[in-house]
Specification:
The protein has 331 residues and is α+β, with helices and mostly antiparallel strands. It has one domain (85-318). It is 19% helix and 27% strand. The chain has helices spanning 3-32, 52-55, 72-78, 125-131, 194-199, 263-272; strands spanning 87-94, 97-104, 110-114, 134-139, 159-161, 164-167, 177-182, 187-190, 202-208, 211-214, 217-218, 235-241, 246-251, 275-281, 289-291, 294-295, 313-318. A seven-stranded antiparallel beta sheet has the order 1-2-13-12-14-10-11, with helices on one face. A five-stranded antiparallel beta sheet has the order 3-17-4-15-16, covered by helices on one side. Strands 8-7-9 form a three-stranded antiparallel beta sheet. A hairpin with a 4-residue loop joins strand 7 (177-182) and strand 8 (187-190). The N and C termini lie far apart (97 Å).
Length: 331
């Protein structure tokens, strides 16, 4: 072989080696510098994560629970943000009233409280809510009210707060009795004495009436005026669904103008939203539904004034570390 041909062969070999070396270099670069890079057009893959950001998502990133197969009223109760474990407010209305229904999702956090000034004066519900670090509250039981001038200083009938018996006297009106929760967080509507409430494990209760629905059965309504089947008044009521969700109802009305809800309309509203047990609470000017530090209903006194009055007791929703209830109507 001539020197010329040998030189030409060596040049070709060198060129081949350069091409091979370049290919290896490019491959190494993409294998190291761009490792894990996914093209923008690639579909995003869901992965499990234990990061705090996933455990505590922002509100606009939270999944909204949807139940398309349910009725409209069931959706109103059950459809909520997945991290909402507190309550939901639903506006309600009729031909002569308007008000609010509150669904409380954890009945174990419902408690009965009374005025801190017992023996001297009642209190407004917002004060009871604030004093007990609660999220919301509704007026509850009756109180001694001679000549309709009582100031709510003394609860009427059996009253228990967090297993502490505050009033041991039985409710004097045969149309009602104990309204409260037992150790299993079931709403109990029974005419009980002080021994019976202890043996039944009643942890929180007030006394009032009448009972409107007991174990799914609508009770016969008797009486006259606001307690009669056709009497209209501002109303407060409490109920519970078979799934344990507690329903609080507060509707406004001015009796001087024939406004308000009948007890039958209260039953209709509560059953429409699934209540199987329902009891009437103190009504009229006593009606107060407080969320945070705001009373969201508009009570009217017999004089026509838009105001409420001090009361003896309330049902409250106790606060917890993850409060995120629906306060949109309040805001």
């Amino acid at each position: 072989m001539s020197k010329k041909k040998k030189k030409k062969g060596n040049g070709l070999l060198i060129l081949i080696l350069i091409v091979i070396a370049g290919g290896v270099g490019v491959g190494y670069y993409y294998a190291t510098e761009n490792k894990g890079v996914v093209p923008k057009s690639a579909p995003k893959v869901d992965t499990m994560s234990n990061s705090s950001e996933d455990d505590n998502p922002k509100e606009d990133e939270v999944t909204y629970l949807e139940y398309p197969e349910l009725s409209e009223t069931e959706r109103q109760i059950l459809e909520r943000y997945s991290n909402n474990n507190d309550y939901k407010i639903i506006p309600v209305s009729g031909s002569k009233f308007k008000g609010y229904l509150v669904a409380v999702y954890e009945p174990q956090r419902m408690h009965a409280v009374i005025t801190s000034k017992r023996g001297s004066a009642g209190e407004y519900v917002d004060k009871m809510v604030s004093d007990n670090n609660a999220l919301l509250g509704i007026n509850a039981g009756g109180f001694l009210d001679p000549d309709y001038n009582g100031d709510g200083e003394e609860p009427l009938g059996l009253t228990i707060s967090k297993n502490r018996m505050l009033v041991s006297d039985k409710y004097p009106d045969s149309r009602g009795g104990v309204i409260g929760f037992d150790a299993n967080n079931k709403l109990i509507l029974e005419d009980l004495d002080s021994k019976s409430v202890v043996s039944r494990g009643i942890r929180d209760c007030i006394s009032f009436g009448p009972y409107l629905v007991v174990n799914g059965e609508v009770k016969k309504m008797t009486g006259s005026g606001a307690f009669g089947p056709t009497g209209r008044s501002a109303r407060s009521a409490i109920g519970q669904r078979a799934d344990g969700i507690v329903l609080l109802l507060c509707v406004d009305g001015d009796r001087t103008k024939g406004q308000g809800a009948t007890l039958g309309e209260v039953v209709e509203i509560m059953q429409r939203y699934g209540a199987v047990n329902v009891a009437n609470l103190d009504g009229g000017t006593s009606c107060q539904l407080v969320v945070g530090d705001k009373m969201i209903n508009d009570p009217t006194a017999l004089s026509g004034e838009h105001r409420s009055r001090p009361v003896a007791s309330a049902f409250i929703l106790e606060s917890d570390s993850g409060n995120n209830g629906d306060s949109s109507l309040v805001n």
